[in-house]
Amino acid sequence: MTLSPKTILALLILAAAVWFILANRGTVRIRLWIPVVLAPMWLVLLITFCAGMLTGMLVWRRKRQR
After folding, report:
1. Per-residue DSSP letter, 3
2. pLDDT of 2-58, one tens digit each?
3. What is d(CA 42, CA 23) in angstroms, rounded to the nearest whole number?
4. pTM for the whole thing?
5. Are strands 36-40 and 27-31 parallel, antiparallel or unpaired?
């Protein structure tokens, strides 16, 4: 089974993101305009990573349609 360079790069980015999330497990305060929320850092990083992936997929899809 051979993997394309894009697949290998995606797996490396995913592995780095998982490692970074697991290495940062403390609690952080997040200001959301008015309320202040306490959340585990790993959850904040996971949500940020997923939002970035979703944004990238939407941009790629729009670019592909043109």
Report:
1. -
2. 889 889 998 998 899 889 888 888 999 999 888 999 999 989 988 998 999 899 989
3. 8
4. 0.67
5. antiparallel
